Amino acid sequence: MQHRRSHATLILMPSSQPFRICVFCGSANGAGPAYVQAAKELGRNIAAAGMGLVYGGATVGLMGVLADAALEGGAEVIGVMPDVLMDREIAHQGLTRLHIVKTMHERKALMSDHADAFIALPGGYGTLDEFIEIVTWAQLRIHQKPCILLNINGYFDGFLAFLDHGVQQGFIRPENRALIHIARNVDDALEMAQATPKEAPFAQSHAGNHGFWGAKKVDRRLANRCEGDCGPSVPLRVYRSMSGYRSGSIWSARWLLQTWQRFPVFRSQSRHSL
Length: 274
Description:
Order of helices and strands: EEEHEHEHEHEHEHHEHHHHHE
Radius of gyration: 19 Å
Mean pLDDT: 76
Helix content: 40-55%
Oligomer: single chain
Structural class: alpha/beta
C-alpha cells in the first residue's frame, strides 16, 4: 500500500521476519541448576515455536546457554554487543547476526528495535538495567510490547516486593506496576509474550485524522531521516541522531524504531532537511 504526502511517497511493506523475543539474562550460571535449565528450555521453546531470539550477544553464563539452545533448535538468533565487551572475547561466534555497537544505550535501542516482546531471566545489574529501561519506555508509552519477568525459584521475589513498596509509598502508579508480567515457568512466559498487544501506542494515539502518518511534523522528520537509505541500520542512526533526551524528537525516534520493526520503509521523490 502507498501513503502519499506532498513532501514524500512512502511504500509500506509488511515484514516477513519472525516474531522475536528479546531476552535479558545473566552472564553467570547462577547458584543452582534451575537457572541453566530454564535458559535452555526458553531457548528450545523459542525455536520450537518458530520465533527468533534477540539477546546480548555473549557466549558466557545464561546468555550462552540460551543462545546455544535456540541455535540448536534452528532459531534465528541476533546478538547485540557493545564494542567495550568485544575485548573480553566473550562474543558468540555462531549467531545468525551479531551487531557491534558503541554504547550500552545503543545496545538497548537496537535490541528493542528487533524485538516484539521482552523476557528477563535471572541476572544481575545489567539484566535489571535493561529490563527496567524497557519497562520505563512502556510507562512513557514509547512502546506497548510485553515485559515479562521469568521468576525462576522466586529469584525476583525481593525485587517485586520493592516495586510493591514503591506503589504503597506513592512512587509507582498501580497501572505502571502492572506493566510487568510475572511468569513462573517458560510456557507461561511465552504465552504472555504473544498474548499482549505489541503495537506502538504513539502511532495509535497521535495519528488522529491523518491516518498512519498522523503527526505531520513527525512524519516529515521521519521520512527525511530515511532519505536515501533503506537498510536495517536506519533506525539506529535515527536513534543516535535524535535521542539523548535533548528534545521532543525522542518520541519520533522511538516511534520509528517500533514502526521499522513491522515495515521496511522506502522513500522517494523530494528531498528535505530537518
